[in-house]
Design a protein that fits this description.
- There is one protein chain.
- The chain has about 220 residues and is α/β, with parallel strands linked by helices.
- It has a single domain, classed as Aldolase class I (TIM Barrel).
- Helix content is about 35%, strand content about 15%.
- It is built from nine helices and eight strands.
- Strands 1-2-3-4-5-6-7-8 form an eight-stranded parallel barrel, surrounded by five helices.
- α4 links the parallel β4 and β5.
- α1 packs parallel to α2 and α3 runs parallel beside α4.
- It is globular and about 45 Å long.
- It starts with a strand and ends with a helix.
- The site of glyceraldehyde-3-phosphate has 17 residues, from β1 and β8.
- Keywords: Lyase, Schiff base.
- Catalyzes the formation of 4-(hydroxymethyl)-2-furancarboxaldehyde phosphate (4-HFC-P) from two molecules of glyceraldehyde-3-P (GA-3-P).
- This is (5-formylfuran-3-yl)methyl phosphate synthase.
- Pfam families: 4HFCP_synth.
- InterPro entries: 4HFCP_synth, RibuloseP-bd_barrel.
Length: about 220
């Protein structure tokens, strides 16, 4: 079954989606970018409040591709006790050296690499992620105005991504301005989870308030996947 990841930015929102029984509670500050980070103190508070009732993931922010900066951010996030740490691979030519450095953290932390579908991501990196001990890889979009995942990538490209991730036994997720209407089409990929923020909010405004009806509809549609 394809699970539902819901991105939230506060203790209140985390409790709200917990009550709606989403599968993964993802901590992110949408106002700060595609993978905007929450303050570590807020992350710690949410981890304590959720108290293992659902897995919690968190992003480390839209950081420049500096290996030491990313290493430090991942290490600091790991200390909050989140179950998964999501880090974005933004366009750069040093992905391999970043992956190599992070390999020392994967023994104790579950890392999820986020590749950006609207930035022509280099999917040949997927075996290297596995070799370094990453737990998963997902697609998202960097520019939230560029359209949804299935508008910026062809079905063949998405299938290729899923195949590569599954061949490496990595958890694989899909996100990027997904909506309730995209779910029937996304079913074919059999991803481990689909991630949502904008579609969970009033008027699909990702920095706005969560909408209970929208969350329920998406959860129901995913139950049919
Ligand atoms: O990881 C999932 C994201 O929070 C997706 O955000 P979005 O639906 O606004 O593109």
């Amino acid at each position: 079954m394809t699970k539902m990841l819901a991105s939230v930015n506060s203790v209140e929102e985390a409790l709200f989606v917990l009550q709606e029984n989403v599968d993964i509670i993802d901590l992110k500050q949408p106002a700060l970018g595609a993978l905007g980070a929450l303050e570590l103190a807020v992350v710690r508070e949410i981890v304590a409040t959720i108290a293992k009732r659902k897995p919690v993931s968190a992003t480390i922010g839209d950081l420049p591709m500096h290996a030491r900066l990313i290493f430090n951010a991942v290490q600091a996030m790991a200390e909050t006790g989140v179950d998964y740490i999501k880090l974005g691979f933004f366009p750069a030519d040093n992905w391999q050296s970043i992956i190599d450095q992070l390999a020392t953290l994967t023994e104790n932390s579950a890392l999820i690499a986020v590749l950006f579908a609207d930035q022509q991501p280099d999917m040949t990196i997927i075996p290297a992620l596995k070799q370094a001990g990453f737990t998963g890889v997902m697609l998202d979009t960097m520019n939230k105005k560029s359209g949804s995942l299935n508008q910026v990538m062809t079905a063949d490209e998405i299938h290729h991504f899923i195949d590569q991730a599954k061949q490496q036994h990595l958890l694989c997720g899909l996100a990027g301005s997904l909506s309730l209407q995209s779910i029937p089409d996304l079913r074919q990929y059999q991803a481990n989870y689909l991630g949502f923020r904008g579609a969970l909010c009033n008027q699909h405004i990702r920095t706005g308030q969560l909408n209970q009806y929208a969350i329920k509809q998406i959860k129901l549609a995913l139950n049919r996947c």
